[in-house]
Write a structure and sequence with these properties.
α4 runs antiparallel to α6. The strands form three sheets. Strands 3-2-1-4-5-6-7 form a seven-stranded parallel β-sheet, with helices on both faces. The mean pLDDT is 94. The two termini are 23 Å apart. The chain has 18 helices and 15 strands. β13, α14 and β14 form a beta-alpha-beta unit. The chain has three domains: 170 residues, Glycogen Phosphorylase B (Rossmann fold); 70 residues, no CATH class; 186 residues, Rossmann fold (3-Layer(aba) Sandwich), CATH 3.40.50. The longest helix has 22 residues. It is globular, with a radius of gyration of 23 Å. By secondary structure, it is α/β, with parallel strands linked by helices.
Length: 468
């Protein structure tokens, strides 16, 4: 049997991997699992309550990135963003570059990376710069530490659960030196156009045929037989109907009125939607006199609800349902609790719609066939941040001409559009399921993503042919 290592460098991998069925399935098939992580130790203990198994653990030590490595990575990232904006004819891709803010040293690094990135000529130039970057990784203390860690663990395969984390690149290069096969999961549906793939692995796990095509489009050097369509475990949770509470029980637990129709406002992070509190106020104003409607609010998990405090005070009928996350002083102390999965599944199942600025939650609600409503207007004519940029992001191009989402193009449309969703859901966003299936692909199949991913890891460990 195989020894399978999960590299979880930050909290992003907790929900999809530690709380999913994948560890249980591997253990029950006789495989050994080791978690190489930089998380609070209690997270793995919590996961054992979910899976029934306590895996081995190894600390993933963090290192300050070597300046030369950082400049090579950032300059090639900038060049890729320019390249991606060109091949898609979409200038909003450049909004994924860093803002020139912060300490002088950081601003100088960003400017230097831009200067060098502009001088990288053509796609061949990008690949040559990245080749130097990957070569440089092996000359760092981080690489040497991870080489030692891998010799100690001696796994048959490594899965990196977050492809965007720069520190994981050192570990992947160390694994290659030891001839340990590597797999990376593409974490989110909007990652690939953003040029945030600072590592290279032998194989890649993607959500769908659409994501596989994207990976090959933005990284043509990656061969099709390196890419396996597994789905993503985050949607496996929605298949478990045993976790669905009755409407009455969910209402009782959270102080809701089960006879009313529930509308969920799902908050965005402050960078994506800096005026989010104003949008919540707009929705609360629009629905304030709808006696059969109850407005629920869940903020983005990594932020507090402080910026919404005045709105919640002014509209006491809003029911605030904060995410069930542990929060601490340091980044590795922020993580979802297992009960947050149950909470989010029930919220998506029981609410009639979700309202926000371009959130992935529209896909979660589509799983249970509920239309999502995107707010599509600015608050002032001259504001620097604008919804036009948000909805022109490349990942929204996946909708094509489909009627996949409901749009409110001004505050005066909110009540009308919400009312239409509540009263005639089948007539609104008729293509929402088609859009969801395009994005999450394998999740609509009977086989779970956890099973698909477990099979991929075992096949790679055993050097068997990979199903792509």
């Amino acid at each position: 049997m195989s020894k399978i290592c999960f590299l979880i460098p930050d909290g992003v991998g907790i929900r999809n991997y530690l709380y999913s069925d994948i560890i249980r399935q591997l253990y029950e098939s006789g495989h050994e699992v080791v978690i190489w992580h930089a998380l609070a130790s209690q997270v793995v203990e919590l996961s054992a309550k979910v899976s029934g198994y306590l895996p081995q653990q190894k600390t993933f030590k963090g290192f300050k990135e070597d300046l030369t490595v950082q400049i090579l990575r950032e300059s090639s990232t900038y060049a890729r963003l320019v390249h991606n904006a060109g091949i898609t004819d979409n200038p909003t891709i450049m909004l994924n570059w860093h803002e020139r803010k912060g300490p002088l040293k950081r601003k100088a690094l960003i400017r230097l990376s831009e200067f060098l990135g502009k001088r990288i000529k053509g796609y061949e130039g990008i690949l040559n710069t990245e080749k130097i970057y990957f070569s440089r990784l092996s000359k760092t203390p981080a690489y040497k530490q991870y080489l030692s860690d891998l010799k100690d663990m001696n796994p048959d395969v490594i899965l990196c659960t977050h492809q965007r984390f720069p520190g994981a690149a050192f570990a992947m290069e160390a694994a290659k030196a030891l001839k340990i096969p590597t797999v990376a999961s593409i974490f989110s549906w909007d990652n690939l156009p953003k040029a945030r793939l600072p590592l290279r692995t032998d194989f890649y796990s993607v959500w769908s045929e659409h994501m596989k095509s994207e990976l090959q489009f933005y990284y043509p050097e990656i061969e099709g037989n390196q890419i396996s369509i597994t789905g993503t475990p985050q949607f496996d949770f929605y298949k478990n109907m045993r976790s669905i509470q009755t409407r009455e029980d969910f209402a009782r637990e959270h102080g809701l009125d089960s006879k009313k129709k529930w509308v969920c406002f799902s908050g965005c992070d402050i960078k994506t939607s800096p005026f989010d509190a104003a949008y919540l106020r707009d929705v609360a104003n629009a629905l304030d006199e709808e006696d059969d409607v109850q407005l629920l609010f869940r903020q983005v998990p990594v932020e507090s609800a402080d910026r919404y405090a005045d709105v919640l005070k002014d509209f006491p009928k809003i029911v605030h349902l904060p995410p069930k996350w542990n929060k601490g002083k340091h980044w590795n102390e922020f993580y979802p609790l297992p009960e947050d999965i149950h909470h989010l599944v029930n919220l998506s199942y029981h609410c009639a719609t979700v309202v926000n600025i371009g959130s992935t939650m529209a896909l979660d609600f589509s799983w249970f066939d509920s239309p999502g409503l995107y707010l599509n207007y600015d608050h002032t004519a001259d504001q620097e941040w604008t919804v036009r940029d948000i909805y022109n992001f490349q990942h929204f191009k996946s909708m094509g001409t489909w009627d996949a989402i409901v749009w409110a193009n001004g505050t005066e449309e909110i009540k009308e559009k919400v009312r239409a969703i509540l009263d005639h859901p089948d007539q609104m966003a008729k293509d929402r399921k088609k859009w969801m299936n395009r994005i999450i692909g394998a999740e609509s199949q009977n086989q779970s993503a956890a099973s698909n991913l477990a099979k991929l890891l075992v096949d790679v460990a055993n050097k068997e042919s990979i199903q792509v």
